Write the structure tokens for this entry.
Amino acid sequence: QVQLVQSGAEVKKPGASVKVSCKASGYTFTGYYMHWVRQAPGQGLEWMGWINPNSGGTNYAQKFQGRVTMTRDTSISTAYMELSRLRSDDTAVYYCARDWMVRGLEDWGQGTLVTVSS
Amino acid sequence: EIVLTQSPGTLSLSPGERATLSCRASQSVSSSYLAWYQQKPGQAPRLLIYGASSRATGIPDRFSGSGSGTDFTLTISRLEPEDFAVYYCQQYGSSPRSITFGQGTRLEIK
């Protein structure tokens, strides 16, 4: 079965960077786009962007361009999302999610809580 | 950028009742690219409906989706206790595979 296992919770200071990992198993990692979605406490879902694990190509939401970098390591079937210049309003749960051929995000990681606090 | 507006913000119903959730797009959306998700507290979202009306794997048939153009609906025919959650609609935009979510509808027990 498909599994997406994310790295653990992080606490960062304003201005720092955070890198969240998402290890995939149960399917061909390079065959499906991987998206990153975040959710601030008590708020809705916010799309951040995607990476094509096959080519490494990316597409970032305009809001995050210049601050987010999505990468992958195909040898270990893992996707990464790095967010820089963190602010307090970046405090959120960050999810990776597998794109099911533009039908929807069929599989999700368990989420990684990133807390930004001085 | 297409904006998705969900209504109502909160829906209060009893188990056994029918729930109708709305998702309205600011511009016409291809039905092929409209999905619905369910999210329970402390959990990741779960894909319910794709292509506006097709149920994802393992989704009970009390969940159904309909609509086209700018107006889409998620219907839960008879609410079970486990259906009380937050529901989001989502569409794929013109920037390749870019995604927009609605703000969500909270379905609560009356």
User: Anything to note?
Assistant: The interface with chain A takes residues 32-33, 35, 37, 39, 44-47, 49-51, 54, 56-57, 88, 90, 92, 95-104 of chain B (CB under 8 Å).
